[in-house]
Amino acid sequence: MKLYNSATRTKEEFVPIEPGLVKMYTCGPTVYHFAHIGNLRSYIMEDILEKYFRWTGLKVNRVMNITDVGHLTSDADTGEDKMLKGARREHKTVMQIAEYYTKAFFDDCSKLNIRIPDTVVPATSCIPDFIEMISVLLSKGYAYISDGNVYFDTSKLDEYYIFNRHNEEELLVGAREGVLEDTSKRNKTDFVLWFTKSKFEDQELKWDSPWGLGYPGWHIECSAISMKYLGRSLDLHCGGIDNAFPHHTNEIAQSEAYSGQKWCNYWFHVLHLNSSTGKMSKSSGEFLTVSLLEEKGYDPMAYRFFCLQSHYRKTLAFSWEALDNAAGIYAKLIARIAAISDTGGTDSAAFDKFKALFDEALSNDLNSSLAITVLYDVLKADIPGAVKLALISDFDYILSLDLIKKADELRLKESSAADESADEEVETLISARARARAEKNWSESDSIREKLKAMGIVIEDTPQGQKWYKLK
Ligand code: AMP
Ligand code: ZN
Q1: What is the CATH number of the domain that holds 241?
Q2: Same domain flag for 232 and 377
Q3: What CA–CA distance (Å, rounded) separates 128 from 207?
Q4: C-beta 377 within 6 A of ligand 1
Q5: Do 197 and 345 reside in the same domain of the chain?
Q6: Which string of DSSP letters, residue by residue, matches 392-437?
Q7: Does residue 458 sit in the same domain as residue 392?
Q8: 42 CB under 6 A from ligand 1?
Q9: Which is deepest, 111, 121, 223, 332, by most CB within 10 Å?
Q10: What atom of ligand 1 comes closest to residue 241's alpha carbon?
Q11: Cβ of 26 below 6 Å from ligand 1
């Protein structure tokens, strides 16, 4: 597969370190609120990538953290800790908030057919691992203590700005998330590994450490959790583009400083979903959730389809019109699949040809919209219905649009609607015959009996009136 690697800014052949196995890490959600559909765009595209690997026969070991420790992260401008903010908003503890929104996140994933990673790790369950990593960084001279906090010293690295498309202004935003008006930092890009002092004196969750009671910085989570579960190097790291800097840059800095070796070979960044008012974020702008889409009558599958129609490396503009459009196309697609008659028959050459085309689309930097075009080509092709259905079912392992399931549901709905209208017609004829008999209109009553017989309904006249049954 050719995959665009954000670290080298080129499409590269994807070659896992261990043949046959992909070690994949995903930055999980910060669980202080519901995930918005922008966050879920990233997880949908990562899901397609993971399933594509599996579809081609590779094994995947995917790890994801849950950020349940409070941080400013990209919310720097709000000047408030995210988890605390959530807890205050809902008059709950940070742990209650984390538990509630972790469950809500996985509920949304399940509605969108996003596979849950093999290993999901809340940051709060790995405090000793963070402490160990920070201790090593201190002992190797990559970190320093200043004014109670432990900082990573970015000046000790030969190379820091891996994702260096960032201008001075962005660097300063990144630097600011390290809290404190940072007179305590040596370099503006240094970042906090462990806080004992912060603006958040009322931080609920604190742990003992060699540097005092405190809590870990955000970036250390992903490095330590990844190394704990995937080893000192991994194949692929995923996340939304906003995480490229400072989060991923800092993850690389501290991971490679810690282990003394290259950490991650490929970086997969999903571009943002923007709302009409600009970037969709949990702290500002339009905040759309899966539940809101459902309340408005949208099938979550229509949103997944909407995402798959665009390439992950293009910013995607959300609008209700665009979603309506995708929902309409998705509904028509299901209707077309439901209309395929499974009359048997095989055509292995056609099966292989379309499978290869589908593979080719995805193997070229995950071109999901082209893969969907191949699906339409299958629908149009002059091949047996059974082959079409087999291909659709095979493709849907990756697309996960419930294509066969929804088509079956539609067929069932249509046939029960047809049954209902047939039953209504029978009832009307039986009443009409009863009226004809009461009026002693025998010719009319006999002609209705014949009509019913043609519909498979046998009618008998008994002293208690008409009795009828369906012929098997
Ligand atoms: P967070 O919960 O803020 O840590 O974000 C979870 C994931 O969603 C991260 O991979 C982010 O990079 C990603 N993300 C945040 N905002 C958007 C957006 N508007 N569109 C796509 N992905 C996003
Ligand atoms: Zn991360």
Answers
A1: 3.40.50.620
A2: no
A3: 10
A4: no
A5: no
A6: HHHHHHHH---HHHHHHHHHHHHHHHHHHHHHHHHHHHHHHHHHHH
A7: no
A8: yes
A9: 223
A10: 12
A11: no
Q: Has residue 149 been placed in a domain?
A: yes
Q: Is 38 in the pocket of ligand 1 (CB under 6 A)?
A: yes
Give domain status of residue 166, yes or no. yes
In this structure, which residue's CA is closest to atom 12 in ligand 1? 240
Residues 439 and 465 occupy one common structural domain = yes
Look up the pTM and report it. 0.87
Asked which of 87-101, 102-116, 284-298 is least confident by mean pLDDT, the reply is 87-101
- Provide the residue range defining the domain that includes 33: 2-279
* Residue 36: alpha-carbon gap to chain centroid: 11
The reply to whether 261 and 356 lie within a common domain is no
Query: Is the CB–ligand 1 distance for residue 146 below 6 Å?
Result: no
Ligand 1 in reach of 281 Cβ (< 6 A): yes
pLDDT of residue 165: 56
Residues 147 and 269 in one domain: yes
429 and 347 in a common domain: no
Ligand 2 centroid, distance to 93 Cα (angstroms): 24
Secondary structure (3-state) at 310: coil
Burial class of residue 106, CB neighbours in 10 A (0-12, 13-18, 19+) = middle
* Ligand 1 atom 5, closest CA: 29
Instruction: Name which residue leads in pLDDT, 365 or 160.
Output: 365
The CA 67 to ligand 2 mean position distance, Å, reads 9
Kindly indicate the confidence band of residue 33, based on its pLDDT and cuts at 50, 70 and 90.
Answer: confident
Q: Is the pLDDT of residue 102 over 80?
A: yes
Q: What is the pLDDT of residue 203?
A: 62
Q: Which of 272, 275, 296 is nearest to 286 (CA)?
A: 275
* Neighbour tally for 341: CB within 10 Å: 10
What is the residue whose two structure tokens read 């075009």? 373
Does residue 243 have its Cβ closer than 6 Å to ligand 1?
A: yes
Dist. CA 239 → ligand 1 center (Å): 7
Count of C-beta atoms within a 10 Å radius of residue 336: 16
Asked if 224 and 363 sit in the same domain, the reply is no
| DSSP-derived pairing of the beta strands 143-146 and 149-152 | antiparallel
pLDDT at 342 over 90: no
The tokens describing 133, both together, are: 């990593």
Number of separate domains in the chain:
3
Residue 387: name the closest of 354, 363, 419 by CA: 354
30 lines ligand 1 (CB under 6 A): yes
Residue 419 lies in a domain: yes
For residue 404, give both structure tokens: 């066969």
